[in-house]
Each structure stands twice: as C-alpha cells, then as structure tokens.
C-alpha cells in the first residue's frame, strides 16, 4: 500500500512539473554554454577575422561540418543536441554548424538564440524555401513527418557552400555522447555517397506499398541491390559525390511520382531508401541508440491513461529513472525516482 501512496505522490509532483513546463513551452530561455576548447592534438583550421578568410575557414578540410534543421518549436531539442556535440568533441573549435531554417521563420530570433547560448560557435543559418517541397509532400501516416523542413536534408548539397565537401547531418531530437569527428570519419569507400546506420533485419517490404511492389517498372529499382532500411537522422554525406550524381533531383523525381501513385506511406525516408538503400556505407550502430538508449528491460510508459490529455508529454520509467519527454525531447531525468 505504501508503494501505491508513494507512486501517487510521485505522480502528483510530476503533474506539477509538467504544468509548469507546459506553461513555459512557447517561450524558452537558454543559459549561455561555456566555451569548449580544442585539445592540443587538433588540426588547425584557418583563423583570421577578415571576411575572405572566414570563408576560407568554412572551406577548411580540417573543420568538421554539422548540418541540422532549426525551428522555433523544436529549439529545445536542437540546443541539447548542439551542446552534446560540443561537449564530447575533442576539437570543438574546429566545428562548423550549418543550420537550415524555413525561409518563413524568424531567422534573426533563431540566430540570436543560438549566438547568445553558444557565443563561440561557428555557425551559419541557411533559409530554406520550403514552398516547392510543400507541394511535393503527400500526407503521410505520421503528421510530424509532413513538415517541409524534414526534407531539407535532401537539399544540403545546394544550400551549403560548394567548398564544403562532407557534412554530418543530424536530426534535432538526439543527444550525441561521443566525439563527432569519429562519426565524420566513417569510411565511405570508393563509391558510397553517404553513410548511415543500416538495419537489414527490418522488414524492407513494409516501407513501400503493394502498388510499388506489384509494378515491376518501379520495384526493379532495387534489382541488383541488397536494400536495407537505414536511419536518415544520422548521416555522413559526401557532398561532392552527391552533387556529381545530382541526387537531389533523383529524390525529387520519386517524390513527384509519389504525388501521382502512392508508393509509400512514410514521409521523407522512403525516397532516400529508393535512391540509396543497398549502396550506402554503414555507420556503427553504437551511434544510433533508438529511444536514447532505452533498450534495457524495465522500460515502461507511465502516462498511458493520460495520453488524450497530454498528447505531447510522455513519461517513461527506465530502470528506476523517470524520463519526462515533451514533444519527443527529454525535459528531465529523475534518477532513482521514488526509490
Ligand atoms: C546572425 O547574426 C550575425 C551577427 O549579428 C550576423 O552577422 C549574421 O548575418 C546573422 N545571420 C543570419 C542568418 O541572420
Ligand atoms: C514484411 O511486410 C510485408 C508487408 O507489410 C508483409 O506482407 C510480410 O509478411 C512481412 N514479412 C515478414 C518476414 O515479416
């Protein structure tokens, strides 16, 4: 019985925390992150303050380029992701962030927020005109996947300066816990355009509709390939090879076809699979812990009964830790909660 009472007390305090965070959800304030310094072994990128030289720095091969999308509603996730990348990098001063934001977004606010929290960060914001993409998106089974910014990863080769040869693309709902230069150094071999975590046990058939599989002129696209599902949220992309092969157009062509014939149900992933599955280089699975590593036994969704009231909130018990998510971002981890 005491257990039940304790649990109810816990639930009550959770409800309190949640109502506070809910109220503040639209108006975040972020603290300033400390400066992160290079270790002595880091290669040098060109440091000068003249405008010409700053573009030389962007073009330096020794820089690690990271691309992410940025929008006001997911800002909290992006901030956590950026901090986690810097914290675990041995050469944080050599990192250059390329943020893609909707052209309709308040870019100066985003710019200011990033610059205030990360005053030492090298970054650029690229406005992404999402109207052409919006016209190509057919509604998927998950509304969150229909946001045009989800498709920005297909346009990196055009958006980023031509001198950027390689970029690590990261979704904005993740936390990195290792040195990103190791991820960026994932070998691409002689041909691969990108590397991503591949899962050959996933049922590849299920990513496309029966219409697709029953039409040989479509499904033959996978002939001579061993296609596997891969996660497009953690990718190392060779932008030179991408540009040379004009892969942006190839992906757009599949999206145009999808507008006429429904060949898949999910959002931005299937066109990537159509173009690249079977031809990518693998990223070590340790870089991609689904559910932020919540793979240990004892994971339990706590707020199931409240789902209709708290659609954006999720509470998970993970091995005695309570994890509070808001819109898929971890707000709070209460360790040894209620023990
Ligand atoms: C962000 O702010 C900096 C400094 O004020 C400015 O130089 C830069 O052009 C701004 N970038 C964007 C995309 O607004
Ligand atoms: C894979 O998915 C397809 C379509 O969703 C289904 O028909 C098939 O039985 C599944 N195969 C396996 C091995 O689960």
UniProtKB/TrEMBL annotation:
This is Hexosyltransferase. GO terms for molecular function: glycosyltransferase activity. The lineage of its organism: Eukaryota, Viridiplantae, Streptophyta, Embryophyta, Tracheophyta. SUPFAM superfamilies: Nucleotide-diphospho-sugar transferases. Its EC number is 2.4.1.-. Residues 1-25 form the signal peptide. Pathway: Glycan metabolism; pectin biosynthesis. Gene3D superfamilies: Spore Coat Polysaccharide Biosynthesis Protein SpsA, Chain A.
């Amino acid at each position: 019985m005491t257990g039940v009472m304790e649990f109810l007390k816990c639930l009550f305090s959770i409800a309190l925390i949640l109502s506070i965070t809910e109220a503040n959800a639209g108006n975040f304030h972020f603290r300033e992150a400390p400066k992160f310094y290079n270790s002595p072994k880091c290669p040098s990128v060109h440091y000068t303050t003249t405008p010409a030289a700053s573009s030389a720095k962007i073009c330096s091969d020794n820089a690690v380029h990271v691309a992410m999308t940025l929008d006001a509603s997911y800002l909290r996730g992006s901030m956590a992701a950026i901090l986690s990348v810097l914290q675990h990098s041995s050469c944080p001063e050599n990192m250059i962030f390329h943020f893609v934001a909707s052209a309709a977004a308040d870019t100066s606010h985003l710019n200011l927020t990033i610059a205030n929290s990360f005053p030492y960060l090298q970054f650029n914001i690229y406005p992404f005109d999402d109207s052409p993409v919006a016209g190509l998106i057919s509604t998927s089974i998950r509304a969150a996947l229909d946001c045009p910014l989800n498709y920005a990863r297909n346009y990196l080769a055009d958006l980023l300066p031509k001198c950027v040869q390689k970029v690590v693309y990261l979704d904005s709902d993740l936390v990195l816990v290792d040195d990103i230069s190791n991820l960026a150094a994932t070998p691409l071999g002689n041909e691969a355009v990108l590397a991503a975590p591949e899962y050959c046990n996933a049922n590849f058939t299920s990513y496309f509709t029966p219409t697709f599989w029953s039409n040989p002129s479509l499904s033959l696209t996978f002939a001579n390939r061993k296609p596997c599902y891969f996660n497009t949220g953690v990718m190392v992309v060779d932008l030179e090879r991408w540009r040379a092969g004009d892969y942006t157009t190839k992906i757009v062509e599949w999206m145009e076809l999808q507008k006429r014939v429904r060949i898949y149900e999910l959002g931005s992933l299937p066109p990537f699979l159509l173009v690249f599955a079977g031809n990518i280089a693998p990223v070590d699975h340790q870089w991609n812990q689904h559910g932020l590593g919540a793979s240990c036994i004892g994971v339990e969704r706590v707020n199931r009964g409240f789902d209709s009231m708290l659609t954006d909130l999720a509470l998970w018990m993970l091995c005695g830790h309570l994890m509070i998510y808001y819109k898929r971002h971890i707000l709070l981890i209460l360790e040894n909660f209620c023990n």
